[in-house]
Amino acid sequence: MILDRFKLTDRVAIVTGAGKGIGAGTARALAEAGADVVVAARTVADIEKTAADVRERGRRSLAVPCDVTRTEDLEALVAATVAEFGRVDVLVNNAGGWLPRPLMETSEKAFEAAHRFNVTSAFLLIRFAVPAMLENGGGAIVNISSRAASMVQPGFTAYGTAKAGLSFMTRLAAPELAPKIRVNAIEVGGVETAALEMVLSDEVTRRDSRSAQLRAKAAHLDPSMLCEAWDDSASVTFDHALWQELTTLRFVDNNHNALILGPVGVGKTFLATALGHIGCRRRYRVHFERADKLFKRMKVARLDNSVEAEMRKLVAVDLLVIDDFALHPLDVTDTNLFYELTVERHRRGATVITSNRDPSEFLAQFADPLLAQSAVDRIQSAAYELVIEGESYRKRQRPQMASPLPDSGTSRSGRRTTS
């Protein structure tokens, strides 16, 4: 039978983006053809499900968490495959994609990121996988491209260009790696996947964006402090892996906390606010407030007997962001308030605190050392700590002069000038 020509019995395949859609379907098809399959994607639950589907088809499978935009993850993916199965025969570069956006709304950073996600990741994984393939006589590489690579349609400048690059890279790689390794690309069209649904739901996305803006306003978030607005060229350093973890908001889902620490002006408030915006986009209840204003507001609430109602609001939010904590000493009332708030929210909600002080200095700022120790211990015991160091980020937020207009030979008074 013709299908016998496609048997992959005991071959080992790697599929990226295998958590859902085309990648998951490809992994199942490879298993049905007789291959053992290594499934890779960022979301562990998704690839574990795909791996289980492969095993149900009588083949072995390994689920490897992998962010294809990280070179070390790609190298580790191949190493894990060789360690587990001893070989690599098939590589399917499926991970990729990018949301449509008009050219004039596509930033330099977004354009480059689209290429990193769709082209560079495949290039690097090919480089890492080829030596393992050659050790066993050769193999096959399939790059999942898109019809967007050869069709002209608005909104696909970044994605279409990236996929065109992937398709042409395939054509260039094929003769270099032949005859032992075959390299092909498939330019897929519309396939009913979660990714396509996301593209087709553009109107829903616009509505959600407006809704997120309204929630962010209600949460008192600065609208300019977004993740995508952060200047990566800033002279500050912090643990980017930890930051990426925080942006997933898994800490919010798990009712954990985050301490964002560092000297004045390094961008603590910016990053904390950016987390708040992500929360608003995901429909979490978010509240942002500077610590001194929070304590003053709650003191006023005590005077009109509304403090309990205000406290219930603070306890109820999914993500509470307290900015500039412990900048000023806390009096007895402030200490009691913070203790009560911390106890009520402990393991029930997520809190992000920014501070210029190290947590070891917090206790000295409280009026009651015993309450302070109890509150701070609760915060720290369930907290990630992101420490930022470097030059002031605020310098990059200064207003800039507009580019000077061409000299028309006319003064501000409107009179013609001569030299």
The quaternary state of the protein chains shown equals: single chain
Roughly how many Å is the radius of gyration?
A: 27 Å
Uncertain ranges:
408-419
Shape: elongated
- What is the distance, rounded to the nearest whole angstrom, between the alpha carbons of the first and last residues? 89 Å
User: What is the N-to-C succession of helices and strands?
Assistant: EHEHEHEHEHEHHEHHEHEHHEHEHEE
How are the strands of the biggest sheet laid out side by side?
A: 3-2-1-4-5-6
Count the helices. How many?
A: 14
**Proportion of residues in helical segments:** 40-55%
Please provide the count of β strands. Answer: 13
For the biggest sheet, the summary is:
6 strands, parallel
Structural class: alpha/beta
β content, as a range? 15-25%
Mean pLDDT across the residues is 89
Index terms:
45% helix, 419 residues, six-stranded parallel beta sheet, alpha/beta, disordered C terminus, five-stranded parallel beta sheet
